[in-house]
Give the backbone structure.
Amino acid sequence: MIALANYVMRGRLPALLVTVAGASSMMFCWISAAVIALVTLRKGVGEGAWLLMWALLPAGFLLLYLNDSGPLAMLVGAMFLALILRSTVSLSLTVLGSVVIGVVTGLALLAFGSGLLDQLVALFAEFLGNLEQQLAQTDEKALQIVPPTALQIAGILGAVSAVSSVLCLLLARYWQAALYNPGGFGEEFRALHLPPFYTAALVLPALGLVALGAEYRTWAAILLVPLSFAGLALVHARANRRGQSTMWLTGFYLIWLLLDPIKLVVVVAAIADSWLGFRQRWSKHDDVGQD
């Protein structure tokens, strides 16, 4: 991947070739999004916007003919976050921008993507109906599974768009550090945390959405995306302080992906860190130990 980033930064033509090729595929559009973010961070808004313009052509084709808005949302989202990071030089403020991406994506789907949402509702209903029949054959008391509504699916896709945009931005930042500032990305990511004001501004509306009912819980998840990344940064900081291996982090991510309670624990840890400042406490403890 570093070789690809090095190739992209050789000039406009290599960057254009990789960007257009990736944007033409639903499977590899994340590469295009990361390339656009990298070029924006390193060479400026004009160069990044030029690449985005060309990438929107194949992404628009996927939207019009395959009814897939994912690549378009990812490209625009990564560019948006790169603009924030370039102007603020703050990863904390940048991940907050993912909320805007998720909400706008979800609302756009509700306004203009009714066809896609209807297809997904029908697909989920069919899948869950078959699953319910299989469970009923083995357990007469099997619970009835309620398929998600269009509003819930729009929230899910909004959250996915928010997460994927942040991941593409982080990949671009990793490439930038690997090429021009080795080791810088790790330090920057481990320092990621959210001040108490921003944490409260995310948590309180999320709790309000959860209180409105099941249909709005997926929208609450959008508000928790920045806290999730802040929590993962805290895990990396703790692992780095203890000298734990990459294998330990790999195992943690596998558990995090498979178990939803662990995701909640990570969010709660980020909230606690926002108010208690765990990393600052660790630094003070290390300073006292050295004295």
User: Anything to note?
Assistant: The CA atoms of residues 19 and 238 lie 36 Å apart. DSSP finds 15 helices and no strands in the chain. The chain has a mean pLDDT of 90.
